[in-house]
Specification:
By secondary structure, the protein is of the alpha/beta class. Helices cover 22% and strands 31% of the residues. The strands form 2 sheets. The protein has a 7-stranded antiparallel sheet with strand order 4-3-7-1-2-6-5. A hairpin with a 4-residue loop joins strand 5 and strand 6. The radius of gyration is 19 Å and the shape is globular.
Length: 275
């Protein structure tokens, strides 16, 4: 029998802090976190919130590797609301995890939950029990001479994890867009990282900044994340104009303008049904 690399963790809010105008940091704890084994970097997890109007979180806890089809089969009016987030930090003794919620646009169901979260509130996550897992996308090749990183506010927690993980002396050029000057964070790293923060008043996006930049010599690895159409355009620039091998670029659309994650889930389920 194959052991599932992920498990459902039923957790409780320990703290919820408005760390800046654009972010709420929710700290979660629970006995089962002793089994949690995140891979660091841009570790991706699934959050499950109570369906609107319900207190309990209904998920297929016994489904193992088949959790996704089992969740889809559940009554949409009862099953938990699912969202995808990046882990901000994982600590031992005591076992705790931090998740940073970006409060952008209409906020979204998860960010609205975070803004109202109080100690004791329940939250279930689907997370790894193996450090080497498919929820980590940042995987630079061994021969990379330097790393290019771009992100908007939604991907800032992932950038924090990546910079904390990078080996000492790794050369990195980093561009991060945030909505408020106070959203800029201290990002501890042992890497040789040049970090540029971009604010709305700068009238320059990360995409534009990279296009205008003189990049280091050598073989790069690029990790770019944020709004899907912007990320695709930047990837085309890196491949077509900068001659970076597309295999050396990891790009992630963390959100899509005008589309909620609920819409994307519905699209995915419909596409699978049609296939």
């Amino acid at each position: 029998m194959t052991t599932a690399p992920y498990e459902f963790f039923d957790l409780r809010v320990l703290r919820a802090d408005r760390i800046s105008p654009g972010f709420v940091r929710v700290t979660l704890g629970g006995e089962k976190l002793t089994r949690f084994a995140g891979g660091g970097r841009d570790q991706r997890i699934k959050l499950f919130l109570p369906h609107p109007g319900r207190r309990e979180i209904v998920v297929p806890r016994e489904a193992g590797l088949d959790w996704w089809p089992a969740w889809k089969r559940m009554d949409p009016d009862e099953r938990a609301t699912m969202r995808t987030y990046t882990l901000r930090e994982h600590r031992r003794e005591p076992d705790e995890v931090d998740i940073d919620f970006a409060l952008h646009g209409d906020a979204g169901v998860a960010a609205r939950w975070a803004a109202r979260a109080r100690p004791g509130d329940p939250l279930t996550i689907l997370g790894p029990v193996q450090e080497e897992n498919g929820g980590v996308d940042f995987r630079p090749p061994a021969d990379a001479d330097w790393t290019l990183i771009t992100a908007d506010a939604t991907a800032l927690p992932a950038v924090a994890g990546i910079l904390a993980w990078l080996p000492p002396g790794t050369k990195a050029r980093v561009w991060i867009e945030v909505d408020h000057a106070a959203d800029r964070q201290d990002l501890p790293t042992k890497a040789d990282a040049e970090i540029t923060w971009l604010l709305p008043e700068d009238r320059t996006t990360a995409d534009q900044a990279v296009r205008a930049a003189t990049l280091p010599e050598g073989s790069p690895y690029a990790w770019i994340a944020g709004e899907a159409s912007t990320i695709r355009a930047l990837r085309r620039h890196l491949v077509n104009d900068r001659a970076i091998d597309r295999a050396r670029i990891t790009f992630s659309g963390y959100w899509r303008r005008g589309v909620s994650e609920e819409d994307l889930i519905t699209e995915s389920i419909a596409a699978e049904a049609a296939a």
